[in-house]
Amino acid sequence: MTTFEDLPPGSREYAETVLPVSLCDLRGPARGILSLPRRVAWSGRTDYDLSVYEQRLEAYARVLEAGTRDDIIGLLNHTLLIGHWFDLWWRLDPIYRAVWEITFPELGAISELAEIRRIPGLMAS
């Protein structure tokens, strides 16, 4: 299991200053158009239709990697984040992914299930 000691310097400080205290703090919308500030979506689109799977994943990945604590809390929805963590996992930089999973073990558990699904002969249905 990865720990903060396995990650680059500053990872623990990032978790303590940027990540929410609890995933339940995430109160972003679950549907509609999600408008990201330019500091998060600094190139390309800023408006994402949450009903469109690819747009939802792209918006969440941008916020997870570039958002401030206030952005993360106000833009992300805890149910959507948990429900799409497996799909987001592939899109995130491994360092960000590890910090989120260390901080929130419930996300790490989803990743462990994903690992099992990739083992030949153990494909989950």
- The computed structural class is mainly alpha
Sheet with the most strands: spatial strand order: 1-2
End-to-end Cα distance? 26 Å
Q: What average pLDDT do the residues reach?
A: 88
Note the total helix count. Answer: 6
| Low-confidence runs of at least 5 consecutive residues | 119-125
Task: Give the % helix.
Answer: 40-55%
Q: What letter string, H or E per element, gives the SSE order? A: HEEHHHHH
Q: Quick one: biggest sheet?
A: 2 strands, antiparallel
Overall form: globular
The amount of beta strand, in percent, is under 5%
How is this structure best described in words?
- With 125 residues, the protein is mostly helical.
- 51% of the residues lie in helices and 5% in strands.
- It contains 6 helices and 2 strands.
- It has a two-stranded antiparallel sheet.
- Helix 2 (53-66) crosses helix 4.
- The two termini are 26 Å apart.
- Mean pLDDT is 88; it is low at 119-125.
List the helices and strands and how they pair.
Layout: H1 11-18, E1 33-35, E2 47-49, H2 53-66, H3 69-75, H4 78-89, H5 94-103, H6 105-117
Antiparallel strand pairs: 1-2
Helix pairs in contact: 1-5, 2-4, 4-6, 5-6
Summarize the structure.
51% of the residues lie in helices and 5% in strands.
Question: What characteristics describe this protein?
Answer:
125 residues; mainly alpha; two-stranded antiparallel ribbon; globular
